Each structure stands twice: as structure tokens, then as C-alpha cells.
Amino acid sequence: MKNAVGREIPEEIIEITGKEPFQGNYYRDDKPITLHGPTIRPVMNNQKSKLVGSIREALEKCEAHDGMTVSFHHHFREGDLIVNMVMKEIHDMGLKDIRICASSLGKAHSALVPMIEDGTITNIESSGVRGGIGEAISKGKLKGLAIMRSHGGRVRSIATGESHIDIAFIGAPTADDYGNLRGIGGKADCGVLSYAIVDGNHADHCVAITDCLVPYPNFPAHISQTKVDYVCVVDEIGIPSKIATGAAKPTTDQRKLLMAQYCTDVVVNTPWFKDGFSYQTGVGGASIASTQYLADIMRERNIRMGFGVGGLTKAMCKLLEDGMADVMLDVQDFDLDAVKSLKNVNHHRIPAAVYANPLNKGAVVNKLDYVVLASLEVDVHFNCNVVVGSDGMITGAQGGHPDTAQGAKCAIVICPLLQGRIPAICTDVTTVTTPGESIDVVVTDYGVAVNPARPDILKALKEADCVPLKTIEELRDIAYSIVGEPDKVEFEDRIVGIIEARDGTIMDVVRQIKEV
Amino acid sequence: MEIKKTAVAGTLESSDCMVTVEPAKKGIELELESAVIRQYGRQIRKVALATLKRLGVRNARVSIVDKGALDCTIKARVECAVMRAAEHEGRINWGGMIK
User: Fold this and answer.
1) Collapsing DSSP states into helix, strand and coil, what is residue A252?
2) Chain B residues touching residue A480 (CB < 8 angstroms)
3) Rounded to the nearest 10 degrees, what angle do helices A254-268 and A285-301 cross at?
4) Is B68 strand, coil or helix?
5) pLDDT band at B99 (very low <50, low <70, confident <90, very high)
6) Run of H or E including A102
7) Pseudo-torsion of CA A436, A332, A349, A188, nearest 10°?
8) For residues A86 and A102, what is the distance between their CA atoms, to the nearest angstrom?
9) Mean pLDDT of successive 10-residue segments in chain A (516 residues)?
């Protein structure tokens, strides 16, 4: 059956997963749903200690078993040590058929590949996967299906009980002996614990892992003692230099600076750029440069940002520090400047649910004017692919891409026309992660294309005469005239993963890669 | 054109390719390794074989390690490697076989 972005979703997948094909962005708007609560063990006895001596002890006390689901957050990014530490223990216990429900997995977790191969791990739910795990899934080594969800989609699936977590493992930079957890004050600070809050609320068991035990009460807690069963102290939970990788030097790449300029020109010449506007941007070189260009124009025209949101960087937090933005709403920190900025009273932590859950009573993304995103591929239908490489290998993550793109009034994707020989603007993306109906403007180094569904934006940019406007087909044709039209990548029949839409329907499927 | 010795042209930098041409007894043997083999493998082979044919190379073992080079780059690297392998470098017919 073809879904709303024209992707064929096989009947067998609809049957196995019980999901529907994607029906368009607002399919589940205003439709009643019932939320799910966990089954917990109350702690009434004031003699009970929550401290455990090892991860093994925590696993045993939480009744770890074959077929269970364990969850993790990715605030430590490529510096994370928690996932490998816990999974090694689960592997050593001989448990099988484990489902991992992570907010994301990266290159730091390639140690899981042998556990995928030997059947310890048979299902993975994540924003995405990179490195060895992505390759293993693409090559068909995972017995079950990999499910890729956006940050908002993950909250939805856990809150509705579609994903039921048996044991949540929450890495915490500081914890007290009764499970009050904070993202700061320790040896490996990640600033916020936003992605893990839903785990605390909905998992049956919750284990905090820290390398910095502090006196009770560790307040104000980012995750409360009322959610945590056990606290385990280990030597090291994360590698600080790999947590804050966003603090890169400002880019000098002329191509990126050109795209940054085009992007800023689009923002300042569309109707939402006025006092109190809201904005989210990413961590790439062009995004950061465009934030700096934007700051110059805000100063010039005396325009303030009402709120900024997202994974935050130094460039965004500087707006707050310089008094040019009123509020920052924070779900993740990409560099230490963003972590430090949390001291500012107008820099607020928000849970992933508040940020992006599509099925609550309205997430922050719905209030966004602009979001600036990147993409591996954009096709002539404006569909974006941020998960599967052009060679067919799983190599990225949805993150908040589909959430913010749908929510924002003006969703801008920055994407160089060519990545080496690979055309980023193409006829059909390898895999759809964000539907074209969410994407309004595509900025490339060869020009800017506006989605024909947004004549208001096209009109504003034409009148401003600020950027070289092209149609998306023209951009694709320029790309193909330089590098040639690529052959379609060949896949095996077997489906190894699904790309879930925000609302839990199926956006696309990912098939096993064919060996060449 | 007769391939007399082993010769190399190009680099392993991104967007380049390294072409090695060696003498062979019978026919053309083409080996390709590419970062974009799934999307452009067919096209790279086509360009390489057409270039060899235009240069009149009938017997050679050719290996290409491609890092996402464009067709024009692949053509130029194959031409250069063949000229070196044929000890033909001093007497290239510019505007003739090399276009």
C-alpha cells in the first residue's frame, strides 16, 4: 500500500507492526488517545537503600529477563559509556532477545555489533544509528526490525505504551543516594536530562548510573527521586571531550558561508522575522554561521528573538547572554558554552515531551517561526532523508528533524547541492524521513528553492530579490548535469528497519543492502 | 596503443581517482573500487572503457580506485596513466586522441 509520500509499505510490515501507513501530517490531530502508566514497586520503607554495588546487582534486582526492553538516553553523545557498560553486563548474564529503546545510538556503541550477531540484541528502537550498528542493521544482522523515531515520536511511543520499557538506565552527571538526578555538577556534565524524563515517567524500573554521588538532596532535580528505583556508582559515565563536540571553530568553507548568507537572507525577508520571533537551528558550520549573520541584522534592525529552542550551541546562547533573545528552551547541549549558559535564569530545561511530542496537548515546536535544518538528501517532492546514506547504508538519525519541520511556520533546509559526487538534490530520496509537506525552503550553494505549497514565502522572497531563486527541479538538473544521474541503489527484499512518522504511522521502510 | 610498463596517475584525495595501468596479454581487464560504486559504478566503467578504446588500448590490466571523481577527472587520469604506461608522454597528439 502506498502512503501519503508515495512510498510502498508492504502488507507484511503493516501486519507485523500493527501500524498504519503515513496519512499526512495532521492525521491524528484531535483524535482521542489513552496514555500508558508503568507498573512500579513503591518505596514506603524508610530503611530501604537505593544504592547498589554494581550494574549486575541492579539488573538482578530489576528482574532482568530474556525479551525485555531496556532504555538509554544520548545526552553524552559520542562520549557515552553507559550503553556499552550495561549491555556488556546483560550479555555476560547470558540474556537473549533484548530490545533496546534508545533516544539515539552512535559510533560510540559499535561494541554492540557482536551482541546483535549473537542474538543478545534482536530489536532496536532509536532516533537513528551510525557507524558499526548502522552497518550491521543494513546488512541484515539484526533479527527483528530497527525502528527509527524522531525525538518527539519516541516520547509518543513510550507515553502511549506502544514501547514498554522494562528497565530504564539513566546516566546522570550527579545523583544523590535517593535518585535525584542532575545534568550538571559532576565530572561529565551534559547539562540537561531532557530525553530521559519520559523513561523515568513510564519505565517499570529505573536505574540511575553516576560517577559523582552527591549529598542528599541533589536539588533542583532534573529527574526526581520519585522515579528512580536504584542508584549505581561507577568510575566513569562519559568522556567529557566527546560530549561537547559542537564547539567547533567557525567555518571558513566558502560554500557553507554562502549557504549561511542565503539562509539568513531567507529568514530576514519573510514575514515572521519581527520582534519576538522564535528560532531553532542546528550544529553544522552553515547553521552556526547563519546564526551569527542573523545576530548582526537583529542588532541593525533592533529585533529581539522571543525564544530559541533545541539542541543548543554557543552561538544561540550568546544571543541570550547579549540580551538579544528573551528565553532559551533547552533539550540538549552540544557544547560546554551551552552547558554553562544554563546558569542564566532565562535558559530553561524542557523535557523532550514538551519540546516535540506530537500527541500531547501541543509541543513547543508548534510555536516555532523558523527552523534551520540539514539533510543528506532532498528530492523534488521536498521529502528529506536524514537516516539512510545515498549508498543505502543506515548512517544518521531523525533527531528533531520531522518534529520541528512540521511545527515551524517556515522550515528551511540547508543542503549543499553536491556531496563529493553524490547529488543531495535528487529525483527521489533513498528513504523518506521528513515529508515534503513539512519543508518550505531548500537552501543550496547553487540557489534557493521554495516549496510550491508556500506561495506566500515565494512572493516575499521575490519581492525582496535577496537570493537566487530556482525551482527544486532546476537544482536537481544542475546537480545531475555536473555529476550525472545516479543509478538506483539495489537492495535485497528483506526489510531491516522502518522509518516511523512522528505520529506512529510508517513513513518508509529500509531494506537490506545488496553486497557489491 | 601498446602498454609497455606499469604506470600510475591520480591521487586518493576526495573527488579524485588513482588509475594504474599494467601490461596484459589479452584484452582489457578493468578492476574498480569506488566510494560511489552503487550509484556510479556503471558510469565509471563506461567512461574508463570508452577512454581506453579511443586511445587504441587493446591489452591492459587497469585498476581504478575512485574517491568520487567526476567523469572528466576519470577520463583525464586514465589518459595520463595510459600515456605513461605506453612511454608516450613526449609525443602526445593534443587535440587528436586527447580531447
Assistant:
1) coil
2) none
3) 40
4) coil
5) low
6) strand A98-102
7) 170
8) 13
9) 96 96 97 95 97 98 98 96 98 98 96 98 96 96 98 98 97 98 97 98 98 98 98 97 75 94 98 98 90 96 97 94 97 94 97 98 98 97 97 96 98 96 97 98 98 98 98 98 96 97 98 92
User: Is A461 domain-assigned?
Assistant: yes
**Do both A169 and A272 map to the same domain?**
no
Q: For chain B, how many residues are written? A: 99
Question: B38 and A420: CB-CB below 8 Å?
Answer: no
**Contacts of A407 by beta carbon, 8 Å cutoff, 6+ apart:** A356, A363, A364, A365, A366, A367, A368, A371
Point out which residues pair with B22 in neighbouring strands. Answer: B61
Give dist(CA A429, CA A407) in Å, integer.
22
Residue A258 identity (one-letter amino acid)? L
CA quadruple A475, B15, A414, A351: dihedral sign: positive
Q: Which amino acid is at A460?
A: A
Is residue A1 one of the residues assigned to a domain? no
Q: What per-residue string of b and e applies to A383-407 under the rule 16 or more CB within 10 Å gives b?
A: bbbbbbbbbbbbbbbbbbbbbbbbb
* Partners of residue A490 in chain B, C-beta under 8 Å: 38
Residue A345 bridge partners (DSSP): none
Q: Write out the residue range of the structural domain in which residue A385 sits.
A: 254-489
Domains of chain B, CATH where assigned: 7-89 (3.30.230.10)
Chain A contact present for B40, CB below 8 A: yes
- Could you give the CA distance from residue A467 to residue A30 in angstroms, rounded to a whole number? 39
Residue A36 forms part of a structural domain: no
Q: What is the number of domains present in chain A?
A: 2
Cell 530520496 sits on residue: A429
Q: Is residue A7 part of a domain?
A: no
Q: Which of A120, A119, A111 is nearest to A93 (CA)?
A: A120
How far A451 CA sits from the closest chain B CA (Å)? 27
Candidates A392, A421, A482; nearest CB to B40: A421
Distance from the Cα of B5 to chain A's closest Cα (Å) equals: 30
Question: Which chain B positions have a beta carbon within 8 Å of A420's beta carbon?
Answer: 14-15, 35-36, 67-68
Q: In this complex, is the C-beta atom of B32 within 8 Å of any C-beta atom belonging to chain A?
A: no
The CATH number assigned to the domain holding A232 equals 3.40.1080.10
For cell 561494541, what's the residue? Answer: A111
- As a whole number of angstroms, the distance between CA A274 and CA A480 comes to 38
Whether A237 and A320 share a structural domain: no
Q: Which of B17, B32, B34, B39 to mutate to test the interface with A (most CBs of A within 10 A)?
A: B39
Which of A243, A262, A281 finishes a domain? Answer: A243
Does residue A217 have a cis bond before it (omega within 30 degrees)?
A: yes
Q: In B, residues 68-87, which contact A (CB 8 Å cutoff)?
A: 68-71
* φ, ψ of residue A83 in degrees (nearest 5): -60, -50
Write out chain B residues lying below 8 Å of A484, CB-based: 40, 43, 71
Sign of the torsion angle spanned by Cα atoms A457, A458, A459, A461: positive
The shortest C-alpha distance from A423 to chain B (Å) reads 10
Q: DSSP assignment of A121-138, as one string?
A: EEEEEESB--HHHHHHHH
Record: contact A490-B67, CB cut-off 8 A: no
